[in-house]
Amino acid sequence: PECAASARRRRIQEEADNLSLGVEITYVGILAVHPPPEAAPAFQDVLKAERKQDQMRYQAEAEAADMLAEVVGDPTEALKLALSIRTLQELEDLSNRRDDPAERADMLREYITVAMGDLVAIEREIQRERLLGQLRPGKTTPRQKLRDEHQKRLAILSRIQADPAVFDYAGAIETARKEADDRFQQAVGSPAALVAQAQAYRWRQELTERARLESFRLQMLAYQAGPRIYMLDRWLDVWDEALPNMEKYVLGIDRRRVELWLNWERQSEAMERVTFESEDAGR
Fold it and tell me: Of the ranges 55-59, 84-88, 254-258, 277-281, which one carries the lowest mean pLDDT score?
């Protein structure tokens, strides 16, 4: 749009030409522009709101970068991973609706609209970087890398729209899944740590169960070789677990021929208290 100084120069030149002054107006400069005094507070409120908006946007971008870095380790790689997962989901949804061309066409148009909107948004961010002087020749910024990923996603959807009947859904899904898996494997954030912990837990459980299986097989061999000896050994193990650190006596004769002798004089004080309490309860 035409700036105020250029518009003023053009209007002055037109008036000079109408008056046949024979002069050429080459420059008109506006040193300062101030609103009317009664409207100045309103203008200041607008400027404050714009500065507040910029501050909130920068704060939101910083928080988003921190969250993405925590998830994947790098904000740009996190956005690439999210875009790869979204592309995979879109391809799977379109593949599952090949038997319903009308529904697939509606879904495809929606995906293309969203993809174009995302591309426009990232282009707007790149333009803002250009205005701020953040673009350097020969250097690709993270947003420019993301723009390439968005363009690739839109190109895939456009190929499907061009000829959905012959599009290789299986090959595209396999490629998208491999790309998402590769990017997730490169992630170093909290989800990657959780996956590593889950894998370690899985191996611990598997090795523990394998050890139990081998132990059971060996115990079966022992049982088959001597069932009574094996059962006696297990029975003694149970007593060791149930009553540890206590003396145990093995009677080598028939228990019906055992005569028990108790020396009551050696009863402890606790046992005597129990006896008296039981006598009082009986009375």
Answer: 277-281
Instruction: Give the residue carrying structure tokens 């002087």.
Output: 133
What letter does residue 137 receive in the DSSP assignment?
Answer: T
Show the CA angle centred on residue 20, arms to residues 19 and 25, nearest 5°.
90
Angstrom CA distances, 280 to 215, 265, 275, stand at 54, 21, 9
Largest interatomic CA distance in the chain:
146
Q: How does DSSP assign 30-57, residue by residue?
A: -------GGGHHHHHHHHHHHHHHHHHH
Q: Measure the CA–CA gap between 208 and 71, rounded to whole angstroms.
A: 31
What gap in Å lies between CA 159 and CA 99, rounded to an integer? 18
How far is 104 from 102, CA to CA, in rounded Å?
5
Query: Within a 10 A sphere around the Cβ of 79, how many other Cβ atoms?
Result: 20
In the block, which residue shows the tokens 């046949």?
20
Distance separating alpha carbons of residues 154 and 164, to the nearest angstrom:
15
Interval 259-267 mean pLDDT = 67
Alpha carbon separation from 156 to 161, 162, 171, 195, 267 (Å, rounded): 9, 10, 12, 30, 91
Mean pLDDT across 71-90: 79
The residue whose two tokens read 């996190």 is: 78
Number of helices (H) and strands (E) in the chain: give both, helices first.
9, 0
pLDDT above 90: residue 202: no
Residue 77 has pLDDT above 90, yes or no: no
pLDDT band at 282 (very low <50, low <70, confident <90, very high): very low
* Both tokens assigned to 195: 């996956």
Residue 152 has pLDDT above 80, yes or no: yes
Relative orientation angle of helices 190-225 and 40-71, to the nearest 10 degrees:
20
Which of the four pLDDT bands, split at 50, 70 and 90, describes residue 65? low
